[in-house]
Structures are given as structure tokens and as C-alpha cells.
């Protein structure tokens, strides 16, 4: 199926396409209405050392240990709030960000600020303890292990740096950027509508593909001619189609036509097609007679039989009569409806006519409602 075929399908089944698209948007709105709102608030901890002797990464590692300890109670199944921690990069390399997401905006702000302030306070105390140990000249693992808090947060890098003779932690500090207000988390209504629109368009394409696969509707005359290799005559009205069909028959045969086999692809009666074609023949000064081969057609039948010099129009209703009639008639016309008739059914009928060695076959395609 090409893009032009898809566009034709959407244009014809536009009501279905609109219904699918609107349903998808309504589902997005329903999800937004049913799901409880979520909020998020972020606080920051910035490592500060004017001397530049203590790496900011080491200071943030100390603070991060305390942040993880403070956030642990909120990472259980009993808590509605979710806490995440991220280390900054680039210009934010000296910053630790604590983000809290939950159903209450005020709670998110309170929890985020509480964790940041508590971690900054405990990390500052740990550095002060480390400075006291350093000042006493007891820079070894045993002295550090005497302080449970210091031993639980210091990294190996900090321990190594602490042995530098001119190292000092007196000027190290942490600055806390508190969250002032919480923002809505998630996609929000606009985001959900965008997702619903994209999903709706995908479902429209999928539904059109399924309709085309199941129904196999005739989409255009050009498609039939390319697919089947037979002439296709198109008319918007029954009378217009009959005039075009009769003109095509005369031009293709170039001789007086004695009999025409009429086959309705939709399975309904061929009476309307026969009457319409008979009127078209009479409009050009010839006479036509409508005959019904059903019930009397046999292998010995002669479809070329002329009734008082008129063209005999055989309206076929059953597959058997169609095969015998098409075999002996001079021309066979298969009538189909655009979008209503099936390409698969038309292909099967034309295959049967090919087995019956029908001399001349064309398709009359009605492009409007009956």
C-alpha cells in the first residue's frame, strides 16, 4: 500500500479515522483525569573551598553519603515520595542536586530541603572533625576510625589528601539552595494530548491497513487496470456508466454486437445494469433485449443468438450461468462499485472468465452510490 493509497483510504473512511483519533485523545484526557497529580522539588548542595586544596568531588562524595542516608527512608514501599540524587557536570561540577517527587507539592519541598540541610550540616561536621584530627597530627587510619561518623563518609581519596602537609579543611563549607516551590511532574495534559495525538495517528494508519487487508476495497480505476490488465470504464451515475460502457464495447469490437454478458460483482441482481445499458443502446439508434439465461443455459446454448436484430443483454445471477454466458457471448462486462466491491472478488471473477475463454472482457466501475 502506497502513501497515495493510504490517503485515499483515510479520505473515504474519514469518519472511522476521526473516531479513532478522537477516541485516542479522549483516552489521554481520561488518563490525565484519573491519575493523581505528581509534583517534584529540587534542592542543591554546593561544595565551597576558597583555597582550592580540597577537590570539590571529594567534598561532594562526603555530602552524598549523608544524602543517601537521609533519603533511605523514602526509598521504601511505604513512602509516597521518591528521592533521586545527581552529581553535576561541567559548570555544575561542584553541585549535588536532590530531587523529590510525590503527590504533595508542599511535602516535596519540605523533604527536599530537609535532606539537603541535614546532609550539609553532617558533612560540614565531618570535615570539621577531620580538621581536628589533622591539626593534632594524628593522620592515620586508626585515629580516623575512632570517629564513627568520619569513618563512614570519607573516601580513600580524602584520606590520601589529608596527609598533604599544607592541607586544611578550615575553609571548606557547603551552600544549600533550598527549593521554594514544587513543579508538576510527568507529561501533564499537553504532553498526554501530544502522546494521544501521535498514538491516534498510528492507530488510524493501522486501522486503514486492516480495513484494506480485510475488505480489499477497489480504491481507483488506475489501480484495477494496473493490477488486472483489463479495460476499466468509470461512471458516476448508472446512465453515464452505461453510455461509456457501450461506447467502449463498440470501439473495442468494431462490429455490430449481438450479445453481452452482464455480471454484477456485488452479488445483487444485474437488472438495473441491463436496463441502463439497454437504454444506452437505444439512445444510439439500436435495439436491445434483456434475457435471463438462468435455468435454461446449457453447454449447447448460443449466446450469440440475435432476437429480431437486437443486441441481447444477458443478466447473470449465478456463477454457473456467468461462465457459460461469458464463454459464448461476444462481450462480458463485470460491474463493480468503487469502495464497496472487493479487489479479491473481482480478481476471482476475472480468473473464472479467463478459464471460460471469454472473448472480450471489461470492467464497469460505478464511482458513486447506487
DSSP strand count:
11
Strand content: 15-25%
N-to-C CA distance: 27 Å
Which sheet architecture does the biggest sheet show? 6 strands, parallel
**Widest sheet: strand ordering:** 6-11-10-7-9-8
Radius of gyration: 42 Å
Unreliable stretches covering 5 or more consecutive residues: 138-153, 159-163, 295-306
Tell me the number of helical segments per DSSP (H or I, 4 or more residues long): 13
Shape: rod-shaped
Mean pLDDT figure: 80
The amount of helix comes to 40-55%
Structural class: alpha/beta
How are helices and strands ordered from N to C?
A: HHEHEEHHHHEEHHEHEHEEHEHE
Protein model, in words:
The chain has helices spanning 3-12, 14-34, 56-71, 105-135, 141-145, 148-153, 156-161, 188-215, 221-228, 238-253, 271-283, 319-328, 343-355; strands at 39-48, 82-87, 95-102, 173-177, 183-184, 232-235, 259-264, 288-291, 311-316, 331-337, 361-366. It has 370 residues and is of the alpha/beta class. The longest helix is centred in the N-terminal third of the chain and has 31 residues, at 105-135. The two termini are 27 Å apart.
Amino acid at each position: 500500500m502506497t502513501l497515495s493509497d493510504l490517503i485515499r483510504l483515510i479520505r473515504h473512511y474519514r469518519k472511522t479515522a476521526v473516531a479513532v483519533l478522537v477516541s485516542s485523545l479522549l483516552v489521554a484526557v481520561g488518563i490525565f483525569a484519573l491519575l493523581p497529580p505528581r509534583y517534584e522539588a529540587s534542592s542543591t548542595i554546593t561544595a565551597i573551598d576558597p583555597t582550592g586544596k580540597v577537590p570539590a568531588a571529594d567534598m561532594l562524595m562526603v555530602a552524598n553519603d549523608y544524602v543517601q542516608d537521609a533519603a533511605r527512608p523514602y526509598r521504601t514501599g511505604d513512602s509516597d515520595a521518591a528521592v533521586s540524587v545527581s552529581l553535576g557536570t561541567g559548570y555544575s561540577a561542584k553541585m549535588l542536586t536532590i530531587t523529590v517527587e510525590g503527590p504533595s507539592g508542599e511535602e516535596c519541598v519540605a523533604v527536599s530541603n530537609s535532606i539537603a540541610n541535614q546532609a550539609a550540616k553532617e558533612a560540614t561536621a565531618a570535615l570539621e572533625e577531620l580538621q581536628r584530627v589533622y591539626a593534632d597530627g594524628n593522620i592515620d587510619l586508626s585515629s580516623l576510625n575512632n570517629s564513627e561518623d568520619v569513618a563512614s563518609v570519607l573516601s580513600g581519596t580524602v584520606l590520601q589528601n589529608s596527609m598533604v602537609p599544607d592541607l586544611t579543611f578550615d575553609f571548606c563549607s557547603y551552600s544549600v539552595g533550598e527549593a521554594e516551590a514544587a513543579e508538576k511532574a510527568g507529561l501533564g495534559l499537553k504532553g498526554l494530548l501530544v502522546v494521544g495525538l501521535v498514538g491516534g495517528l498510528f492507530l488510524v494508519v493501522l486501522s486503514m491497513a486492516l480495513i484494506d487487508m480485510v475488505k480489499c476495497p477497489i480504491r481507483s480505476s488506475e489501480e484495477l487496470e494496473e493490477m488486472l490488465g483489463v479495460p476499466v470504464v468509470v461512471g458516476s451515475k448508472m446512465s453515464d456508466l452505461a453510455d461509456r460502457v457501450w461506447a467502449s464495447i463498440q470501439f473495442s469490437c468494431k462490429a455490430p454486437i449481438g450479445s453481452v454478458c452482464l455480471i454484477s460483482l456485488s452479488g445483487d441482481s444485474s437488472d438495473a445494469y441491463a436496463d441502463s445499458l439497454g437504454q444506452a443502446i437505444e439512445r444510439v439508434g439500436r435495439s436491445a433485449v434483456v434475457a435471463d439465461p438462468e435455468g435454461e443455459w446449457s453447454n449447447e446454448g448460443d449466446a450469440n443468438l440475435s432476437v429480431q436484430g437486437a443486441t441481447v443483454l444477458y443478466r447473470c445471477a449465478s456463477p454457473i450461468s456467468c461462465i457459460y454466458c461469458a464463454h459464448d457471448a461476444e462481450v462480458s462486462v463485470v460491474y463493480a462499485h468503487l469502495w464497496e466491491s472487493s479487489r479479491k472478488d473481482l480478481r476471482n471473477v476475472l480468473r473464472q472468465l479467463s478459464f471460460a475463454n471469454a472473448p472480450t472482457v471489461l470492467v464497469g466501475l460505478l464511482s458513486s452510490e447506487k
